[in-house]
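User: Protein folding is very new to me. Would you mind checking the protein record under this note? It all follows right here:
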Amino acid sequence: MKLSYLELLGHLAATLSFIGVAIYANFHRRMLRRTTRNSRLLYWLIMAASVAFAVTNLGRVFYLITQGPESGEGTLLDLIAESFILFQSLILWYLLASKIVVERNAHSYSVLAIGAHPDDIEIAAGATLAKMHDAGYRINGLVLTHGGQGGNAERRQDEAMCGADFLGLDTVRLLDFADTHLQEQAADLVKAIETMIKEVQPDMILTHSRHDIHQDHQAVHEATLRAARNQTSILCYESPSTTQEFTPSLFVEVCEYIEVKIEAIREHWDQRDKPYMKAEQVRGKLAFRGSQAKVEHAEGFEIMRILSSCLGGI
């Protein structure tokens, strides 16, 4: 048999390289979801191509060893294996083309996102916060309850940390005010927000809207306005419980961050059965606000007040 050890090692190395790509993609799946568009499709393309090539090439090696190189030349296995090499090259090109790229601001602005419950920030402004982070903003989160009335408080606390980490928040603080009773704790709520503002010195604050039927959301809105009375820029975001009176006049184009927002919301597994957690509803809301802003997808905000320099290039 004329099959050299060098040829055999070459086939095995090619096989191991594809297996290595699959292992890398699996271990870095979260990063792939955060940094690329259509990440789920891309992940499964990588996995399918890697596994298929590895199986085909191992079959090719076995065939060459048992039958000899003369009988293996130009076989169907050769053609299939070589086609997978081309396919992986196309996947690599698609990976690079799908990379989310945002121009970074020269000035590093500080943002404070305030939510009453563990999933509020991701649902309302997840795409905007991810885009801000990628543009160089420093993002801080403040969650005022563990959401115990709407689910498992301990689990939701962990999910809030995971969601914030996925979006790229630099810091997130979870407080333990009584869920659904924030209106009864108004004074302490104001003090907690004042403390956070003093610590992070935000250029911009994102919070709940006054046009919201959830009592905790209303309480956080009012407490934020009092605590942030000396702040220059306050935007109010949209939650599933906002009313028809919610009228955004500032829009952030988030076409590249649709899947990032959906994946951040999926981190809140405890709330997965809520209708507004579904991907199709998230996409629908982004498309609706996008149509208002004359772009494909956007998140909308009500302006309490805004200093134009804080908007940067978002």
User: Anything to note?
Assistant: The longest helix spans residues 39-67.
